[in-house]
Amino acid sequence: MRHDVEAYVRACELCQKFKASNKKPGGLMRPIVENEPWNTIGIDLTGPLPKTRRGNTYILVVIDYFTKWAELFALANTKAKTIAQIFVDEVLCRFGFPVRVISDNGAQFISNIFVNVCQVLDIKHQRTPLYHPQSNLCERVNRTLKPLLAALAYNDNKSWDVKLPQIAFALRTAPSDSTEQTPAFLMFGRHPRQPLDLCLPSPVSVDQFPTATDLSDYRKRLLADLLPAYVTTRELLDISHQKQATQYNQHHRPLQFEPGDLVWVTALSGIAMGKWRGKKLSPRREGPYRVVERLSSLTYSLIYTITSQQLSPIHINRLERYYSFSSID
What we know:
Blueprint lengths: L1 H9 L2 H6 L21 E7 L11 E7 L5 E6 L4 H16 L4 E4 L8 H9 L3 E4 L10 H15 L7 H13 L10 H6 L23 H38 L12 E5 L4 E2 L2 E2 L8 E10 L4 E6 L5 E6 L3 E3 L8
Parallel strand pairs: 1-4, 4-5
Antiparallel strand pairs: 1-2, 2-3, 6-9, 6-12, 7-8, 9-10, 10-11
């Protein structure tokens, strides 16, 4: 009897749609594993910003998940053709073809030209879930980038694009908390000279051409520095991921759905900073939606059972299982 009463109450559609849930959000963290430089990269747009004298209003951010090396490109427009051209000419032609590129669901990144570039070059294009930008490492760069831009361009906000190379240099020469190395060192095996180095004696300049022995010795020193650094970086990234996952999973619960399951979706228009901020008396959840495909352990493709509207990709922490009276035994 108790089981039947619980099932009946749980199946109340209005309660499911309007009442807050005391359960932890669903979905445990699955960290992105990186083993080598420029294997996985993130790409994102920042803006619009105040229009500069050069006509730029946006910044295209590209970051390597392993070394944390960041590329910043000032843009006058965000057309798909412009994004794809810079991606090919300034990223792929300089650093090679990554195995995976992670972006949000912006029109530029789901356009035919960008998707075709990824398909032709055998690059897996992974899109972050809707309203879940923290899945892209570029968002962390954006948080650091915006205050730096505001400070450097405080007296002249129409010249922020002139400051981008300086900010990029600062990001590349600052040690990362997760790798304990600078992106520049993990890229080149050396630390670039910086303003503080000007206080030290200048290095000895050599005018003669290096011999074959000199080049061989330099190569050996470079490998002796980089290869152990890569091994250490992998270990530190694994430790960092484990800590993040442990902390994140303390506040989340295991949850998964299968194709065909019915679910509620937290009303996306009411989400702000990860919490419900909808209008008074408005429903917290929309649905029911039917699970069409499980895209990954944490993301799903859905279809609205009433209008057949598709929703993809959506993160599992936006989903709750749908209960109906017909499912009561």
